[in-house]
Amino acid sequence: MIARLAGAALALVAAIAVPASAPAHATGPDPAVAQQLGEAYAATARYGYTPFAAEDGYRARVCLARAQGGMGFHYFNESRFGSLDPKRPAALLYEDAGHDQRRLIGVEWVVPVTGKNMKRPRLFGQDFQGPMPGHYPGMPTHYDLHVWLYKKNPSGLFAQWNPRVTCPTSATPGMSSMSGMKNKNDMSNMSNMSNMDHMKGMKGMSGH
What we know:
Helix 1 packs across helix 2. The protein is 21% helix and 24% strand. The strands form 2 sheets. A 6-stranded antiparallel β-sheet has the order 1-2-3-4-8-7. It has a two-stranded antiparallel sheet with strand order 5-6. The protein is globular, with a radius of gyration of 16 Å. The longest helix has 15 residues, at 2-16. The chain is α+β, with helices and mostly antiparallel strands. The chain contains 4 helices and 8 strands, in the order H-H-H-E-E-E-E-E-E-E-E-H.
């Protein structure tokens, strides 16, 4: 199952990694980066079902958006702050899917600042953005890196803001409870399933 998910992720990367403005001659992704992205997808696709995220220690905190786009609802696992493991992101990103549901759209790595001479973290061949203040009380100043594995970002796979993402006007910082599907046997709303359907028939990687 994991191998199939990783293979599907590689096809997904080829489909979503290129910004709309990318030149026609853009080359394919670095094989090592593609492998890491496949690992990230295989490890996080299950979180399309939000109760699984709660079981693994992710807690809803804040929905972030601004004029150039949004990041969506952030579900943080503070025990994973500092992780540079593709399989262990510190945050999951969701958007409102209606009917009290949320759809997984991306993942994020968070590395707290440990000193003024700290080297900027790097993952997937990308430098982290920051440093920046925490997004909720108690969250440390940090560097972070977003990866839009589950929703295409016209600005790029690793862009900070996604112009296709918004936050509901009712969203407020400091959310403490996970919201999502009520019935763990009802998997019909899992966002990763819709992504798997989208990827059927895609043949390998054709661009980046």
